[in-house]
Amino acid sequence: MFTGIVQAVGNITAVTPLEAGVRLTVDAGALERSGIALGDSICVQGACLTVVSIDGARLAFDVSRETLACTVGLDAPGPVNLETSLALGDKLGGHLVTGHVDGLGAVLAFEPAGESKRLRLRVPKELARYVARKGSITVDGVSLTVNRVEDAVFEVNLIPHTLAVTTLARLAPGAKVNLEVDLIARYVERMLGND
After folding, report:
1. May I ask the CATH architecture of the domain 8-84?
2. Which residues of the chain have pLDDT under 70?
3. Residues with Cβ < 8 Å from 3, sequence gap 6 or more?
4. Are 127 and 102 in contact (CB under 8 A)?
5. Where in the chain is the domain with CATH 2.40.30.20?
6. pLDDT of residue 194
7. What's phi and psi for 94, nearest 5 deg?
8. Which of 110, 43, 37 is nearest to 74 (CA)?
9. Which H or E run contains 49?
10. C-alpha–C-alpha distance, residues 26 and 31, integer Å
11. Could you say which of 2.60.40.1080, 3.20.20.450, 3.90.550.10, 2.40.30.20 is the CATH number of the domain covering 103-192?
């Protein structure tokens, strides 16, 4: 379990093909690594991955074909948002995030809004019902508050701090992003029998 509060931006430095997927080598950058052990879960660009190797600042993760098929940004070198898993008693600064990517969103617009930026995204139709105004959503592993929703399109506001400490400043119209809808919304729907 995670919070969607990115702790560091790392960099995928190598993607090595495996029989059933790839092995990512990630330079973890400024991520606090003293408590990380083999088998731990790390949220990498919104996807929960298991640490299979540690070599100083380099962490390795095996990524299955299934995960590659439903995510973006885990198949080539480049920057990634990183967050270690939440421990009981930790501060919950964002919202409850599982690291299970629900689908890919498409950036429709990314434009200035004062000192911030307004990000407008299209969500897959089957996920749109989970997106609510003032609700939470995870974009590439970042916990964000939804400001506006129209059918399968929603907007979030990115403050300068978020832009400075995540990969989101690199987005542009046409880009794809990993989305995870609010976990509580999914359970409420299940309890109401609307699934």
Report:
1. Beta Barrel (2.40)
2. 194-195
3. 83, 86, 90, 92, 93, 94, 95, 96, 97, 143
4. yes
5. 8-84, 103-192
6. 66
7. -105, -110
8. 43
9. strand 47-55
10. 11
11. 2.40.30.20
